[in-house]
Structures are given as C-alpha cells and as structure tokens.
Amino acid sequence: MKVTVFHGSPRKGNTYTATHIFLDELAKSGPVIITEFFLPEALPVYCTGCTLCFQNKKCPNSLYVTPIVNAIIDADALVFSTPHYGACSMPAAMKNLFDHIDFLVLSVSPHEKMFTKKAFIITTGAGTTATIQPIRSYLMQCGVNRVDSLGIRMFTDLWCNMPDARQIKYEKRLRKAARTFYNAKRKRPYIFSIIFYYVVRFIIMKRYIGAGNFPYDNWKEKGYFDKRPF
Ligand SMILES: Cc1cc2nc3c(=O)[nH]c(=O)nc-3n(C[C@H](O)[C@H](O)[C@H](O)COP(=O)(O)O)c2cc1C
Hints:
Elements: E1 2-7, H1 14-29, E2 33-38, H2 62-74, E3 77-83, H3 92-101, E4 118-124, H4 128-141, E5 146-152, H5 164-183, H6 191-207, H7 214-222
Parallel strand pairs: 1-2, 1-3, 3-4, 4-5
The chain binds flavin mononucleotide.
C-alpha cells in the first residue's frame, strides 16, 4: 500500500506522535511505502488565488505543488494529520495545502485515481470534529472512496504529559484504527459524493456550455456527463 502523509502541525508534537503510532501499526499490517510531507516546509508559499489551476494551467507554485499532487495521485491511501486550532479549525499550513489542491474536486478537475483511494484523518485537540469535517467534505467532493478518521481529545500540549493510562488508551485506539484502515476494502460511494456529482453535472452543463471552458470540456472528454465515474 502506497501511503502519502501530510503533517499539518508546525511542530512535531501530539499529532505527529499520534500519526507515527498509526503509521507504525500500518507497517505491521502489511507492506507499505510511506511518503511524508511536512507542512509548511513542503509548501512554504501561499496560494496566490490566481485560479490558473481552475483552467488546467500550471500553478505558479508548481515547484512545490507538482510533487505533492503526484504523490496524492500515486498513493493508494492518504493520511491527513492535523491539530485542532480553535480560530479556523486547522493550522494555516494545512489550509494552504487544501487551497493548492482544491482543483481536484469534481467541479473542476476530477482525477479517476481519486475514486479508488481511501483516506484517514488524524486530529488532536478538543475540537476534533470541527477539524475533521472540512477535510472529510473536501475528500468526498473529490470522490475519494473511503474517508475514516480519529480525533483524539487530549487536552494537553504535550503527549508525554498525559497520564500513562490515557497514553495507552489512545495508542490502542490508533493501532486498532490503523489495522482496520489497512484492511478496509473498497466500498460503495458516499451518498454525499453521488449528490455532489449530480449537482455539479447540472451546474457545469448549464453554466459552462461552450468550447474552451475547461470544466465542461474536461467532463465531456472524460464522459462524466454520460455516466457517473465512481
Ligand atoms: C493557535 C492554536 C490554537 C489552538 N486552539 C485550540 C482550541 O481551540 N481547542 C483545543 O482544544 N486546543 C487548541 N489548541 C491546542 C492544540 O490543538 C493541541 O495542543 C494539539 O494537540 C497540538 O498538536 P501538535 O502538538 O501536533 O501541534 C490550539 C493550539 C494552537 C497552537
């Protein structure tokens, strides 16, 4: 299993610790090849909002973005690892990643290899649902087949400051989740993704009719108007 991991915390703290327990158990479950991206180092520039990616053109930050996108497409599984930050749910570096890969959603430039992928979201901090939800929603908009998650409400700034019993409890949960994730088979697409596909199809057909419009041409060429691709 090829796994591409994105670490969203600017420090190697709680989320990194939790994610490495998860990855350790994945590696024990069977053969894995793990590629890790540490943010913001792996993507130290902001999305400029130029919208070139929405027209299938090269991103001005492609030096950083192309290896990331290639690693996403090439992977069987994606792991998003991020703490919860109360202000807007996740660290800016993680949000910046999603700004750069936003074009992979069905409404812009869907990629058929996304439709067979599974993904796992690991968060730490008290408000884990608020962090998991936007990432899950994004992945479903890309047509990713399976999105699992584990939010650890740990109420501490350092993993090692937790009582031993809690550390053991969370480690067990992470290892169990990793084994389940490793063995998880392809499932039926999410209803959310299916509804999103039909909404997008309706909008693209209405709004982007005419040659030269990338989403329309792209969908037409790939046959997405005729048949749901996942
Ligand atoms: C800017 C910032 C905002 C945070 N906001 C919250 C919050 O609203 N609720 C919460 O429970 N923890 C919050 N935390 C704490 C982190 O979510 C928590 O300590 C997390 O485990 C840190 O992960 P890390 O060690 O991987 O960086 C915040 C931390 C930072 C740095």
